[in-house]
Each structure stands twice: as C-alpha cells, then as structure tokens.
Write a structure and sequence with these properties.
Length: 71
C-alpha cells in the first residue's frame, strides 16, 4: 500500500500510541471519533498506528465502537 495513494488529496493526521488499551490513548481516540463529522467535512484523514498485534487491534476497536460510537 502506498500511503500517498491512500490519502489522495486529503490532509492527514498520523498518530501513534504505545498500546491498544492504554487509558490515555483510548480517551484521545474517543475524542477524535467525536469530531468525525468535522474531520470528514474538512477533508482530513485520521491514521493511527501501534506495535500491537492485529488480534489486539480487533478487540480494542470493537470496544472503541461500543464506548465512543466510532469505527
């Protein structure tokens, strides 16, 4: 995957976090999700990454959806 092909003409915010279930990161991601309408309407793409395994990401992302209504 080429990052620049993926983001196309959008502004991009790339953020990293140390672990999927870290409390500070979870709260910050929730805040990003709450502003999803603003982010989309301003042509911004949010990209988050960590070193955790995919299995942890799946469980964590489901929890984020339930807690904050994000996806």
């Amino acid at each position: 995957m080429n990052f620049f092909d993926y983001k196309k003409e959008k502004w991009c915010v790339v953020f990293c976090h140390p672990a999927d279930f870290a409390p500070g990161c979870t709260r910050e991601f929730g805040e990003f999700g709450k502003d999803g309408g603003w982010v989309a309407s301003n042509n911004v793409l949010l990209v988050g990454c960590s070193a955790d395994r995919i299995y942890s990401h799946v469980v964590w992302s489901r929890e984020m959806e339930q807690r904050f209504g994000t996806h």
